[in-house]
C-alpha cells in the first residue's frame, strides 16, 4: 500500500483537483437558489479545498522531482516523470478557479488585493517547481508553456472579476461617471434631469398610477400564463446587459440615489407590466446582480473577456494537440501518466467549451424541475409555533438541546419555505400603485416613503384605536406585537372559501406570510430588518408566551391555531406576562388584537394587509445595499425582491432618505 501510494499519490491529487473543479463548475450555479444546507456546505468545502489541493499537488510534485538524477534513474521513469512535471501548469489553471464561482462571499471581492498577492506566490511556486523539475525529453516544451499561459490568463481573469465587483471600486467608478455626466451639458438625460424637481416628479409619477388603476383591475381577471411570462423575460435578459442598465443597477447596490428622471422611466415601464412579467423582471435583475458579484460573468461580456475566453480555449486545444502526437511506447512514457494527462487536457477543453453554454445562460436543470424550496421563496417562522415547540419540545428539539444547537435546528429543520413569492410581490406592488394615485405633493411622497402603518390606519379611519402600535413603539417591538396580534386575528377569523372571497383569502395568506417572514428576519437577519434591531426581542416575547402558559394547567399538546385562539381569548395580563422579560409584548398584542377584531371582516383584512406591506417596505428601504448583495450569495432574501420592487416603483432608497434636503416650510409657519 505504501509503494502504491508513492506511485499514485500525484495522480490521485491531480484527478481529485479536477473533480473539485468540475463539481464547482456545475454546482456553483445553484447558489442563487435556496439549496439545502448540506449542498451549500459541500460547495463551500470544495471552494476552499480546491486551492489547497492544487497547492498540495505542487508541493508533492516538487518533492518527487527535487533530485532529478534520482528520478531519472528510478527504473526508467525519466520520460514519464516529464509527463508529471507537465501537470504543474494544470494545477495553476485549477488555481485560477471556475468562471461560475469567482467569489463565495461578498467580502472576497473587497479582498481582491490579498487574492492578488496569494495568486502571485502560487504562480511563482508553480513556475519554480516546473523549472527545477523540467529536463526536456519526449514531451515538447510548447505543451507546458501553452498551459502556463492559459493558467496566468485564468488567474488574471479571476482577479479582474473580483476587482470589478468590489463595492469600493464600484463607488469610485460610479462617482467619477456621474461627475463626467454632470460636466457634459449635451447629455440628453442630464438636460431632462435638470428640469425634474421633486414636486414635478411626484406630479408626473402619479399620472400613470391613476391611469393604470383601471387597467390593472381589468387585467387581473385574466389567466396569466406563467410559462409564457417566463419565456418573455428570458428573451429580455440580453437587454439587461446594456452598460447603462448594469451601471444603474450597481449604483443601487452601492446606495447611490437615482435621479428623478431615471426613476420616472422605471416607474412608467414597471407599472405597465402584468404581475408575472413584473415578477420575472425583478428576478432577472437579481440574477444579473448575483452573476456580477459572485461569478466571472461581470468581466466575461466585455471585449477583453471574450478575447480571454477565446484565447484560453485555443490554448487548451493547442496543448492537447501537441501532446496527442506522442507515441507513449516509443517515448518510454508510463501509460497511467499518459491517461491522466489526457483526462486533464480533455477536461480543460470540455470545461472551456461548457463555459460558452454558461455564458449563453443555458441552465443545467430547468427551473420547473427544482423543488419549491430551491426557488425564490418566502421563509416562514411563527413566534407562537416556536413557543409551542419550546413548551412541548419535539424529538429533534430535545436532541438539539443536549448539544446546545437548538437555534440551528430551528433554522434548518422547522423553517418553512413558501413558493408564493410572485403572489406576495404582486400584493405589495398593487398597494404601492394605489398609494401613488393618492400622492399630490413632495410632502405626501416623503410621508408615503416613511410609512410603517400610519398610512393604512389613516385611510381606514382607525388611527385613534390602533395608531399607538405603529407610532409609540420602536419598529422592532412593533413588528413583534403586530406579528402576535396578526396570528391571533387570522386564526380566529374564519374566511369563507367561496370564489367571491378569493381576494380576501389571498390578502390573508399574503399578510400571514409577510408577518412570519419578518419574524424570521428578526431572529436570523436582524441587520436587514432594521439597523439597531434587538434580536433578543424574539426570545423575550417567546418567554412571555411560555410564562403565560405556565400559569394555566395544560397537559395536552396544542397546535399553533389552538394556541393562538387561546391566547387571543385569555384573561387580563398576569404578573408573569408583565414581568416575563420586561416587555409586555404579549399584553400589547392582546390589546391590539382585541381592537382589530372589533372591525368588520373586510376592513380587518385591509388593515392587517396594509400595515404589513408598509412595514416590510419600511424595512426594505432602510437596509443597506451591501447587505442585499451579501444575501444573494446565500440564495437571496425576499426582502431584496421587495427592495428592488420599491426601486422600480420610484420610491426612495436609503441614500435618498439620508441625503435628501429639507422641504421648504409653509408660508404661515415661516411667518410665525
Helix and strand layout, with pairings?
Blueprint: H1 2-27, H2 37-64, H3 68-72, H4 78-85, H5 87-95, H6 107-110, H7 112-133, H8 142-164, H9 167-183, H10 188-194, H11 198-220, H12 226-235, H13 243-253, H14 260-271, H15 275-294, H16 297-300, H17 303-324, H18 328-331, H19 335-359, E1 378-380, H20 383-391, H21 395-403, H22 406-412, E2 416-418, H23 421-436, H24 442-449, H25 454-459, H26 463-466, H27 468-471, H28 475-492, H29 502-524, H30 526-529, H31 536-550, H32 560-568, H33 575-579, H34 585-597, H35 601-621, H36 625-632, H37 638-648, H38 654-659, H39 667-671
Antiparallel strand pairs: 1-2
Protein model, in words:
With 672 residues, this protein is mainly alpha-helical. Among the domains are: 2-167 and 298-364, no CATH class; 376-419 and 472-622, no CATH class. 72% of the residues lie in helices and 1% in strands. The protein contains 39 helices and two strands. A two-stranded antiparallel ribbon has the order 1-2. α12 packs across α15 and α15 crosses α23 (421-436). The termini are far apart. Mean pLDDT is 80; it is low at 71-79, 185-194, 213-224, 571-583 and 667-672. Residues 213-225 have a biased composition (Basic and acidic residues). This is DUF4220 domain-containing protein. The chain crosses the membrane at residues 12-31, 37-59, 299-320, 340-360.
Amino acid at each position: 500500500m505504501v509503494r502504491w501510494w508513492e506511485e499514485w499519490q500525484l495522480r490521485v491529487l491531480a484527478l481529485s483537483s479536477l473533480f473539485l473543479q468540475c463539481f464547482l463548475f456545475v454546482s456553483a450555479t445553484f447558489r442563487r437558489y435556496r439549496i439545502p444546507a448540506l449542498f451549500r456546505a459541500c460547495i463551500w468545502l470544495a471552494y476552499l479545498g480546491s486551492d489547497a489541493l492544487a497547492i498540495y499537488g505542487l508541493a508533492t510534485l516538487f518533492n518527487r522531482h527535487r533530485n532529478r538524477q534520482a528520478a531519472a534513474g528510478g527504473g526508467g521513469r525519466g520520460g514519464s516523470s516529464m509527463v508529471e512535471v507537465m501537470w504543474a501548469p494544470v494545477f495553476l489553471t485549477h488555481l485560477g478557479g471556475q468562471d461560475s464561482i469567482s467569489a463565495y462571499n461578498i467580502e472576497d471581492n473587497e479582498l481582491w488585493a490579498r487574492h492578488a498577492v496569494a495568486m502571485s506566490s502560487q504562480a511563482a511556486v508553480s513556475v519554480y517547481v516546473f523549472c527545477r523539475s523540467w529536463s526536456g525529453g519526449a514531451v515538447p516544451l510548447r505543451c507546458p508553456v501553452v498551459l502556463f499561459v492559459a493558467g496566468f490568463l485564468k488567474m488574471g481573469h479571476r482577479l479582474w472579476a473580483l476587482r470589478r465587483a468590489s463595492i469600493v471600486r464600484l463607488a469610485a467608478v460610479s462617482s467619477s461617471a456621474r461627475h463626467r455626466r454632470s460636466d457634459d451639458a449635451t447629455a440628453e438625460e442630464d438636460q431632462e434631469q435638470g428640469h425634474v424637481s421633486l414636486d414635478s416628479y411626484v406630479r408626473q409619477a402619479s399620472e400613470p398610477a391613476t391611469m393604470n388603476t383601471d387597467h390593472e383591475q381589468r387585467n387581473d381577471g385574466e389567466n396569466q400564463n406563467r410559462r409564457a411570462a417566463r419565456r418573455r423575460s428570458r428573451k429580455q435578459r440580453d437587454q439587461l446587459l446594456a452598460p447603462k442598465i448594469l451601471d444603474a443597477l450597481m449604483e443601487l447596490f452601492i446606495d447611490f440615489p437615482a435621479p428623478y428622471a431615471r426613476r420616472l422611466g422605471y416607474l412608467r415601464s414597471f407599472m405597465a407590466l402584468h404581475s408575472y412579467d413584473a415578477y420575472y423582471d425583478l428576478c432577472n435583475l437579481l440574477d444579473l446582480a448575483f452573476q456580477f458579484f459572485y461569478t466571472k460573468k461581470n468581466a466575461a461580456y466585455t471585449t477583453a473577456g471574450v478575447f480571454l475566453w477565446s484565447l484560453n480555449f485555443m490554448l487548451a486545444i493547442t496543448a492537447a494537440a501537441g501532446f496527442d502526437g506522442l507515441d507513449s511506447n516509443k517515448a518510454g512514457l508510463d501509460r497511467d501518466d499518459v491517461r491522466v494527462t489526457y483526462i486533464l487536457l480533455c477536461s480543460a477543453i470540455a470545461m472551456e467549451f461548457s463555459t460558452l453554454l454558461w455564458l449563453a445562460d443555458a441552465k443545467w436543470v430547468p427551473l420547473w424541475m427544482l423543488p419549491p424550496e430551491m426557488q425564490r421563496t418566502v421563509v416562514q417562522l411563527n413566534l407562537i409555533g416556536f413557543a409551542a415547540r419550546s413548551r412541548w419540545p419535539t424529538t429533534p428539539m430535545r436532541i438539539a438541546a443536549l448539544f446546545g444547537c437548538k437555534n440551528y435546528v430551528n433554522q434548518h429543520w422547522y423553517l418553512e419555505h413558501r413558493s408564493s413569492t410572485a403572489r406576495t410581490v404582486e400584493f405589495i406592488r398593487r398597494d404601492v400603485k394605489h398609494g401613488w394615485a393618492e400622492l399630490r405633493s413632495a410632502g405626501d411622497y416623503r410621508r408615503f416613503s416613511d410609512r410603517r402603518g400610519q398610512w393604512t390606519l389613516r385611510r381606514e379611519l382607525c388611527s385613534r384605536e390602533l395608531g399607538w402600535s405603529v407610532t409609540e413603539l420602536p419598529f422592532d417591538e412593533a413588528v413583534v406585537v403586530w406579528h402576535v396580534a396578526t396570528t391571533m386575528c387570522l386564526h380566529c377569523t374564519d374566511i369563507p372559501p367561496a370564489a367571491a372571497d378569493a381576494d380576501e383569502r389571498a390578502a390573508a395568506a399574503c399578510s400571514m406570510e409577510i408577518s412570519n417572514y419578518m419574524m424570521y428576519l428578526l431572529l436570523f437577519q436582524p441587520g436587514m430588518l432594521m439597523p439597531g434591531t434587538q434580536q433578543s426581542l424574539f426570545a423575550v416575547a417567546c418567554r412571555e408566551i411560555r410564562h403565560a402558559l405556565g400559569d394555566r394547567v395544560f397537559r395536552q399538546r396544542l397546535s399553533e391555531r389552538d394556541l393562538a385562539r387561546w391566547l387571543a381569548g385569555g384573561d387580563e395580563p398576569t404578573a408573569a406576562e408583565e414581568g416575563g422579560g420586561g416587555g409586555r409584548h404579549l399584553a400589547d398584542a392582546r390589546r391590539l388584537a382585541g381592537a382589530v377584531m372589533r372591525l368588520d371582516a373586510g376592513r380587518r383584512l385591509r388593515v392587517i394587509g396594509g400595515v404589513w406591506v408598509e412595514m416590510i417596505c419600511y424595512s426594505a428601504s432602510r437596509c443597506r445595499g451591501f447587505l442585499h448583495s451579501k444575501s444573494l450569495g446565500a440564495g437571496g432574501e425576499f426582502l431584496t425582491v421587495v427592495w428592488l420592487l420599491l426601486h422600480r416603483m420610484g420610491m426612495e432608497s436609503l441614500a435618498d432618505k439620508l441625503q435628501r434636503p429639507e422641504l421648504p416650510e409653509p408660508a404661515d409657519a415661516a411667518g410665525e
